[in-house]
Amino acid sequence: MSGSPKYSTVTVAPAYARLEAERRRAREAERRRQQAQRARERAEQAARRARETAARRERARAEAERREAESANRRAAREQAHAHRMRQERAGADARRLAEVRELLDKVRADASEVRALRQRLDALQAGVDRAEDLGGAIEEVRGRVVVLGREGEASGRDADQGAVLAGLESRLAAIGEEARVRDPEGHRSCVDLLDELRAAAGAGTETRFRALLGTVEHALGRHATTAGDRAAEELRRAERAREAERQAEERAARQEADRQAALEAEREAHEATLAEAADRLHVVRPSVKAAADEAQELADPALAERIKAALTAVTEPLAAGAAAEALTAVAALEELLVGVEARLDELQLAYTRRIDLAQALQDAMLGEGFAFTGGAEGDGRLLLSFERPSGATYRTTIATDEGGTPVLVYQVDGEPDVTLRPDPDGAVCDHTEDLLERVHEAIVEQDGFVPGELTWQGKPPGQRGKRRSGAEEWRWSR
C-alpha cells in the first residue's frame, strides 16, 4: 500500500458536539468579559482625561480672570491718576487766575466793604481750588466784578502814574510768557494792540480815555493768561489722551495676542488630548492585540498575525510622529479589528483543540491495534503522528482541517505487503490495511468523540458501498 495516501473525513459525535458548544460558549463569554473590561478601562481613561482637561481649563480660566482683573486695576489706576492730574492742572490754572484776580483787586481803590466782599469771595474760591473742585466760570465772574469796580475807582485813576501803570502792564504781559504767546497768539496780539492804545492815550488831559482803556487792557491780559493756561492744560490733556490711546492700543494688541496665544494653546491642548486619548486606548488594547498576534501565530495563521501587527504599526507610527488624528483613527480601527480577530481565534482554538482530541483518540486506537507511537509534530495547522507495526510497516497520519472546519485524516502507509497494483481499470485493492484502519476507526467511534468517514484513496475500486457505522454521519466501504 506504499505511495497511496488514504483519506477519511471525520465528523464529531453528538456528545463531543455538545462539549464543543460548551467550550464555544465559554470562550465567547470570556471574550465578552475581556471586551467589557477594555471598555471599562477606556471609560476610566476618558473620565481621567476629562477631569484633567476640566482642571486645566479651570486653571486657565482663573489665570485669565486674574490677568483681566490686573488689567482692569491698572486701567482704573491710570484713569484715577489721569483724573487726579486733570484736577491738579485745573486747580493750578484756577490758582493762577485767582492770583491774577487778587492782584487786580489789590490795585482797586473803591468802597472797602465791596473790596472785602470780593476778598471773601476769592477766599471761598481758593478753598474750592484747594479741594480741586471745578469752579467753572466763578473766577471770571469775580474778575469782571473787580474790573468794573476798578473802573469806578476814579481816585486811584487820577493819582496813579500813567507811566508806572504802563510799565506794570507790560511786565505782566512779559510774565505771561513766550509759551502763552504761542498758545494764544490772538490774545497776545490783542494785548499788545491795547497796550499801544493805552500808551497813546497817556498824557495830560487824557485821564478819562486812559482809565477806560486801563480796565480793558487788564481784562485782556487776564483773559490772555487764562486762555494760554487753558490751552496748556488742553495740550496736557491731549497728550494724556494720546498716551492713554496708545496704552489702550497696546492693551488691545496684548489682548489680541493673548487671544491668539489662547487659540494656539487650545489647539495644542486639543492635539495633545487627541494624542493622549490615542495613547490611552492603545495602552488598553495593546496587551490583547499582542496576545492575539501570538495566538494567531501559534494556531498556524501567520496571515492573521501579520494583519494584526500591521494594524498595530498603523497606530504606533503616527503616535510616535505626533499625528494625533491619524493615530486616533488607527487605534479605533485596531479596536474594531480585535473584536473580529478574537472571534476568529476562538474558532481556530476550537479547531486546534478538536485536532488534539482527535489525535489522542487516534493514538489510543492505534495503540489498541498493536501499533507503537514513534513521534509527532505540528506545523501549518496540521498534526503529524507516526506509528509502527511489529512487522516494521509505518503509518504516518496527518490530521488537518478543511476549509469548512471538518477534520480530515490522511494516512501514508509504507511497508505493508497487501498492496496489489493491477493495470486493469478495477484499480488497487488494500484489503488487509483497509481492515486494520477500519478497526482503528471503529475504536475511535467507541470513544464517543469522533466518527471517521469512509476510507478512500486514489485507485480505489469503483462500485463499492459501505455500511452505516453506528453513530456516524459518513459511510465506510466494506467488501
Structure, described:
With 479 residues, the chain is an alpha+beta fold. The protein is built from eleven helices and nine strands. It has helices at 14-106, 112-130, 138-152, 154-159, 162-176, 178-183, 185-201, 207-298, 302-321, 324-368, 431-446; strands at residues 6-12, 372-379, 382-388, 394-401, 407-414, 450-452, 456-457, 466-468, 475-477. Strands 1, 2, 3, 4, 5, 6 and 7 form a seven-stranded antiparallel β-sheet that branches. Strand 8 (466-468) and strand 9 form a beta hairpin. Helix 1 (14-106) packs antiparallel against helix 10. Residues 154-159, 419-429 and 463-479 have low confidence and may be disordered.
Task: Give me a quick take on this structure.
Helices cover 72% and strands 10% of the residues. By secondary structure, the chain is of the alpha+beta class. A hairpin with a 5-residue loop joins strand 4 and strand 5 (407-414).
